[in-house]
Design brief:
heterodimer, A: alpha/beta, 6-stranded parallel sheet, 3-stranded antiparallel sheet, 12 strands, 34% helix, B: alpha/beta, 19 helices, 37% helix, 13% strand
């Protein structure tokens, strides 16, 4: 069957900020057309590249994020470009708010205008990046060790862009629902800064106003209680989040079983504040549990004991993860140039035959066909 | 008017992932009812407020700033689900509901008799969205495992990629991005389920494993490992495809400016400002800037360290270079852009009639903008109205549920409170909306 969004025509004109979610939309049936300059989309130029390949199809950013999309080469300002945009139900694009005034090309079109800081305000013309977005939302300040400069979360991943893309997708879907209800299209104003602020309640202003606790970056353990944060083990690190009394009691039993230190079972330690006061003691005992064992051993045994513990997974670990393997997470993308790409597939499971996949398009692969339709 | 003002939602939720989805739906007009229990309250309520030391426990749970952050615009149904009467009332409500969203663990939802099959039996066209940590398939190896909040980022690969390569992973200790990321997938899943129902009349069971959503964002690196056996590593703030980038020291204690040089033109602009050795042609190409990043950091740091972060950010942006103050929380509060766009809201609630402060919502629709009308419900505030009007129970049936303690209404309905800072909220740049 065709996907739930079949018949919806989307023109995508973003770099990184729309790519993640429009991939999902394409797989759910939307007809997503990426407009590329003759030199190829930004993502075609980003490393890593497939080994032994060069040119516009070699980037693994493009090979992943463009799955299911169609490629049209058209210069901004050209007649072809204007026709293509006019044919769309939805346009998702990066805009420069000092230069562009986003407006629908026809009465029933939804335009999602993505910019670093939004279409209004004194800094609307400011340029952005993933790092700039995290910094502007107060989040970079909270990440890292206190003796070094703050860091963005997972810099190589460009996660702020992917968060923004999901807001863009939801904004587009809401806009289409608006068209159905009112007969009219509209503009969706999306600021990357605000998308990141949406992830920030724990470090955010309302919480701060209430407790006036400044939250400097804490390194990789949180300044609340113990064990909470990352602990070294035989092949990397594991993460603990032991907050509730029941979780601590299970943890204390595990520590006592391994170290023979019975004093850790004292009821005084059931109070998370007491554990924070004796952080060094708790951390030392916790590391006696973790250091000789592997991530996966600790994950399985700790979870079996009812303790919230997770492995600090690397990309290699994720590729070997038992759940991802058996749950059907992976899908072989048969790419015409790069060969078989073991790729993440469906984003969720559903009791309908919704998902449909195709490889990332070649540069301009659909120019002729799409312009004929436009 | 919100585009979802014809949509009814029930949320059985805890912490962030499902609540963040329900809050977005509620902002855009949906009638979102949160099921709440006094015997098993949402952790968001348990935090309470640091200053609320002499109020009874049930009122204390209305004071948590996480209540508006996670549940502004929602209604609250106080209902104990562990028992036949509570379950039956919940199913009566779900029979008249279009969307159900839950992030309870699947074993817990099934134990309550509210699994998909149970709900579909009374409402086959419902859009049922579950987002447990590891999905709803009991055959999977982590089905019963616990993974939430700050424990998700390490699991999904973000923590190992966060921090400097010569140090332990810094991790993302203070916030929980994967929770919100999963919530955004749930948001899209709800809208997709509604689209499918509008087109076909069919309901849907959508099962989102939180683990899997964020892992997908690592796509290029997962492919790289498959093809080249390379394991991507953390890189501080650096990227191999643009340089320089980083957080640079400024005047003051722990003050920084974030700078991204995205291309050669931006580098020329920055080098022109710094002058001296930065103008050296040895930094002209991306490859050279990547290779000599440490040197560049020293040159840039020398320039930033004699400026305030705000001065540096303005000068850089004036020259066309992406830059921003690395805001701490006070910086966010006073940020001119945040204030001008009215990000922080001040709206009243039953418990805080003079207003409560909470974060806005980033999807600004020009014609159907959505709105905030309430800063989050007291626990059980809407029990009677929801059970009679939406679930279709009689007044006698509702009275019986209240008398037996299966249902409850808000504690101390006449007891109103004021945040200690509320008189200053507008001075601080919070936007007041009359509900």
């Amino acid at each position: 069957m065709s996907g739930p969004w079949s018949g919806v025509r989307v023109v995508e004109q973003t770099g990184l900020t729309g790519a993640y979610a429009t991939r999902m939309w394409a797989a759910l049936g939307a007809d997503v057309v990426v407009v590329e300059p003759p030199g190829g989309h930004l993502l075609r130029h980003l490393p890593p590249f497939a080994p032994g390949h060069e040119g516009p199809d070699a980037s693994l950013w493009w090979a992943f994020f463009a799955q299911g999309k169609r490629s049209v080469v058209a210069e901004p300002g050209s007649d072809e470009h204007a026709r293509l945009v006019a044919s769309a139900d939805v346009v998702i694009g990066d805009v420069d708010p000092t230069r562009d005034t986003p407006r629908p090309a026809h009465d029933r079109q939804v335009v999602v205008a993505v910019s670093p800081f939004g279409l209004s305000g004194p800094r609307k013309g400011w340029k952005g990046s993933d790092l700039v977005a995290w910094a502007s939302a107060g989040l970079a300040f909270t990440i890292g060790f206190p003796d070094r400069a703050p860091v963005a979360p997972a810099t190589p991943v460009q996660f702020a862009a992917h968060v923004t893309s999901l807001f863009a997708l939801n904004g587009a879907m809401l806009g289409l629902r608006g068209v159905r209800r009112t007969g009219r299209g509209q503009v969706v104003d999306l600021s990357m800064q605000e998308c990141c602020l949406s992830l920030a309640p724990e470090t955010g202003v309302p919480i701060f106003l209430d407790d006036r606790v400044a939250r400097p970056r804490p390194g990789n353990r949180r300044r609340v209680t113990r064990p909470w944060g990352l602990y070294p083990c035989a092949d990397g690190h594991v993460s603990f989040l032991v907050l509730q009394p029941a979780h601590w009691k299970a943890m204390a039993t595990w520590i006592a079983d391994i170290t023979g230190v019975e004093s850790v079972l004292d009821e005084a330690f059931n109070d998370m504040h007491v554990r924070w006061e004796v952080s060094d003691f708790i951390d030392e005992l916790t590391e006696q549990v973790t250091r000789p064992r592997t991530k996966l051993e600790l994950f399985r045994e700790g979870q079996g004991r009812g303790i919230p513990i997770t492995p600090v997974n690397s990309v290699a670990d994720l590729r070997a993860d038992p759940h991802l393997e058996s749950a059907g997470f992976w899908r072989d993308d048969e790419h015409p140039v790069l060969g078989t790409l073991p790729s993440p597939g469906a984003l969720f499971r559903v009791n309908h035959d919704w998902w449909q996949w195709a490889s990332a398009p070649r540069l301009g692969e659909h120019t002729e066909a799409e312009l004929a339709r436009a | 008017v919100g585009v979802l003002d014809d949509v009814s939602v029930v949320e059985l939720s805890i912490a962030i992932a499902a609540p963040s989805c329900g809050r977005a739906l509620a902002f855009h007009g949906a009638d979102v009812v949160k099921l709440e229990s006094r015997t098993n309250p949402d952790v968001a309520r348990l935090f309470g407020s640091a200053w609320a030391t002499d109020v009874e426990r049930e009122v204390f749970m209305d004071t948590s700033p996480y209540v508006p952050e996670m549940s502004a615009n929602k209604r609250s149904l106080g209902l104990e689900l562990k028992g036949a009467e509570g379950r039956s009332a919940a199913l009566a409500l779900l029979a008249n509901t279009e969307v159900f969203v839950t992030n309870y663990s699947t074993p817990a939802v099934r134990a309550l008799g509210l699994g998909y099959e149970d709900v579909a039996a009374v409402n086959p066209s419902i859009v049922y969205v579950a987002l447990p940590g590891f999905g709803s398939d009991a055959a999977q190896p982590y089905y019963e495992f616990l993974a939430w909040g700050p424990n998700q980022a390490p699991l999904v690969g973000l923590d190992a990629l966060t921090g400097y390569p010569d140090q332990e992973p810094a991790g993302i200790a203070s916030i929980a991005p994967p929770d919100y990321f999963a919530g955004l997938h749930a948001f899209a899943a709800v809208l997709t389920g509604l689209e499918h129902r509008d087109r076909t009349g069919e309901g849907s069971f959508i099962d989102i494993a939180q683990f899997e959503t964020t892992v997908s964002s690592l796509g290029p690196f997962l492919l790289d490992h498959a093809l080249s056996d390379r394991t991507a590593d953390r890189s501080g703030n650096r990227l191999e495809w643009l340089a320089p980038q980083g957080c640079y020291p400024c005047i003051g204690d722990d003050r920084w400016v974030a700078i991204t040089v995205g291309d050669d033109d931006q580098w020329s602009a920055l080098a022109g400002m710094i002058g001296g050795a930065a103008s050296d042609s040895r930094f002209g190409s991306l490859a050279e800037r990547v290779a000599r990043h440490d040197e560049l950091d020293e040159l840039i740091g020398a320039w930033t360290s004699i400026r305030t972060a705000t001065e540096a950010a303005h000068q850089l942006q004036d020259a066309g270079v992406p830059a921003y103050e690395v805001h701490d929380i006070v910086g966010v509060l006073h940020d001119e852009q945040v204030r001008d766009r009215r990000w922080f809201q001040l709206v009243g609630s039953l418990r805080f009639p003079d207003g409560d402060v909470f974060s806005g919502h980033p999807i600004h629709l020009s014609e159907t903008p959505g709105r905030w009308w309430q800063a989050g419900p007291s626990m059980g505030q809407d029990t009677v109205e929801v059970l009679t009007k939406r679930a279709g129970l009689s007044v006698d049936e509702v009275d019986a549920l209240l008398a037996s303690g299966v249902a409850f209404t808000e504690a101390g309905p006449d007891q109103t409170l004021r945040r200690p800072y509320i008189d200053y909220a507008e001075i601080l740049g919070v936007h007041r909306t009359e509900a």
